[in-house]
């Protein structure tokens, strides 16, 4: 029989527990409370997440009386302690005892089996950060780890979803960055996950990670509270730092950066990247601008190229719902100018390749009204898909053009375009958009085009006028 003394206060209960306990669990910062407790000396001290602990903070538990052995458990390949002062950070204030001992050559044991990530997820971080020393546990290689929450292959265990149409913006705090297009894509994916899960008895947790606080705030605002009180379906939106030590069934990473220079700022941190890439159990979907990241000369360049070589690289418009999401964002934010590129979501997979002249781009940007811009965008989308009006009254008589100049009405404006020839793998017909003008200015442009077409050969004009299958000769 278990015999307990008579306790008359909580302090007596606490003293009894301390005096008879063989294991005591506490945080490093609260371990100072043990200084004044009457109990047997502690022989062994184990500090978990030791690589995240400032060296000075390690002193708190190390001063406990009787400690003869110390075991530090951590990963110096992941984020260290947070130090806000740049001066203190440069001075090494955030360095951990774990890192110091490691740099001094103290022997260490590698726990070389991971039991969290699907092998498709662990493949890149294992090779890039751990020199292929980490093995996959039997549980993650089992059939039960092969989940199909959304249609494969884009939403398989590991995907990089290329979003070249995003625009990085300064957040409300004036410092951090956000990308509204990626926020909308996140919202659609989470919505689709919920719809696929609804009615299931399975518990599903979703994590949305971004290195930028403004993007975290934007994603939280977009998702709102709609998934807060749903039993069995949990969505968490946090920064990379906030997710360290955590894990979710599905993780969506929003990289935010989208520019022509390849500038990605502190996203290039290998430790921050490692944390973000290793939080998911079954599925990891990375959202980003592949071209920007490949130019960054960072770990992200290797990640994108790895995804491409493995067949895990997808364009966002491979999914029609996500393509529509991008168009909705551009319309909502009056950023339709971003779509005027042959590689944009609007034209990338169109039947006709489209080239825009500088004059057209300048004229379109001068249009301030969304109501004016949308009919033009819709017309261009239809033309690139192969649509042509039934009434053949779009030709413009031009002495040297032989009717290759066309005009198409979009409300109060006219889009002026021609069929042209370019060489890719072979010669193909393309649609060249010269300008968008009020009717009164069309004649002047036609006269200018006439002087250009005067230099074209008859054979070239003839080829422009030919009707080809898929634009090919």
Automatic annotation (TrEMBL):
Secretion signal span: none
Domain of life: Eukaryota
Domain DNA2/NAM7 helicase helicase: 14-86
Domain DNA2/NAM7 helicase-like C-terminal: 94-290
Protein name: DNA2/NAM7 helicase-like C-terminal domain-containing protein
Keywords: ATP-binding, Helicase, Hydrolase, Nucleotide-binding
A Gene Ontology cellular-component term: chromosome
InterPro entries: DNA2/NAM7-like_C, DNA2/NAM7_AAA_11, P-loop_NTPase, SF1_C_Upf1, TRANK1
The keyword ATP-binding belongs to this UniProt entry's keyword annotation: yes
Keyword Hydrolase in record: yes
GO MF annotation terms: ATP binding; helicase activity; hydrolase activity; RNA binding
Pfam families reported for this sequence: AAA_11, AAA_12
């Amino acid at each position: 029989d278990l015999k307990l003394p008579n306790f008359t206060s909580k302090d007596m209960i606490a003293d009894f527990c301390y005096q008879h306990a063989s294991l005591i669990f506490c945080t490093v910062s609260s371990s100072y409370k043990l200084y004044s407790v009457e109990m047997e000396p502690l022989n062994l001290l184990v500090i978990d997440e030791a690589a995240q602990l400032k060296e000075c903070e390690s002193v708190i538990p190390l001063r406990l009386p009787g400690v003869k052995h110390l075991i530090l458990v951590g990963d110096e390949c992941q984020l260290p302690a947070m130090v806000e002062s740049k001066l203190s950070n440069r001075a090494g204030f955030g360095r951990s005892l774990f890192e110091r001992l490691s740099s001094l050559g103290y022997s260490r044991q590698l726990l070389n089996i991971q039991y969290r990530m699907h092998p498709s997820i662990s493949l890149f971080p294992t090779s890039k950060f751990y020199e292929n020393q980490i093995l996959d546990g039997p549980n993650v290689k089992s059939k039960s780890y092969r989940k199909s929450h959304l249609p494969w292959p884009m939403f398989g265990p590991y995907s990089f979803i290329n979003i070249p149409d995003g625009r990085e913006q300064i957040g409300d705090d004036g410092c951090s960055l956000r990308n509204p297009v990626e926020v909308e894509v996140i919202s659609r994916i989470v919505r689709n996950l919920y719809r696929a899960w609804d009615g299931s008895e399975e518990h599903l947790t979703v994590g949305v990670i971004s290195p930028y606080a403004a993007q975290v705030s934007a994603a939280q605002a977009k998702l709102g509270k709609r998934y807060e009180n749903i039993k069995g379906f949990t969505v968490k939106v946090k920064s990379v730092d906030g997710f360290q030590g955590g894990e979710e069934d599905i993780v969506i990473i929003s990289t935010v950066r989208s520019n022509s220079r390849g500038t990605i700022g502190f996203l290039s941190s290998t430790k921050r990247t490692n944390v973000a890439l290793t939080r998911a159990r079954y599925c990891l979907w990375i959202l980003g601008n592949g071209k920007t990241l490949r130019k960054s000369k960072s770990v992200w360049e290797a990640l994108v190229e790895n995804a491409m070589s493995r067949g895990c690289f997808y364009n966002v418009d491979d999914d029609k719902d996500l393509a529509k999401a991008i168009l909705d964002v551009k319309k909502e934010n009056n950023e339709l100018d971003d779509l005027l590129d042959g590689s944009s979501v609007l034209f990338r997979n169109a039947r006709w390749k489209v080239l825009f002249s500088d004059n057209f781009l300048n004229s379109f940007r001068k249009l301030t009204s969304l109501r004016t811009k949308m009919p033009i965008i819709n017309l261009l989308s239809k033309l690139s898909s192969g649509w042509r009006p039934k009434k053949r009254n779009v030709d413009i008589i031009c002495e040297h053009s032989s009717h290759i100049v066309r005009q198409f009405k979009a409300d109060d404006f006219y889009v002026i375009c021609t069929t042209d020839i370019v060489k890719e793998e072979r010669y193909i017909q393309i649609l060249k958009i010269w300008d968008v003008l009020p009717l009164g200015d069309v004649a002047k442009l036609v006269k200018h085009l006439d002087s250009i077409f005067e230099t074209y050969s008859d054979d070239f004009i003839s080829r422009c006028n030919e009707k080809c299958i898929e634009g090919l000769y």
